[in-house]
Fold DUF1330 domain-containing protein.
Amino acid sequence: MREPVPWARRCIKPEGYQAYGVALQEVLRKYGAKFLVRGGTFEAVEGKARGRNIVLDYATALACYRSPEYDKAKALRAGAADIDVIVIEGYDGPPPTD
């Protein structure tokens, strides 16, 4: 089953985050990630929100996150951004009726 992965971030050092972003592209390509949401306008209607949100869709999210390639990318991000990464099992069934 595919795993949507929402990411929320607060950028602290843009230059460090840029290096992470470049390295991350290669990792996401290798693991077949597809962007469903990448930034964009949003409205936090309840609770707290980050300034930028990303949702990725891929079947290998945990393998990607735990990979040596992503470890290298994470090292570039250290101290540059405060992010939340959540892996959520996808849903392929019929629309809910409840």
Observations:
- The chain has a mean pLDDT of 84.
- The chain has one domain: 3-85.
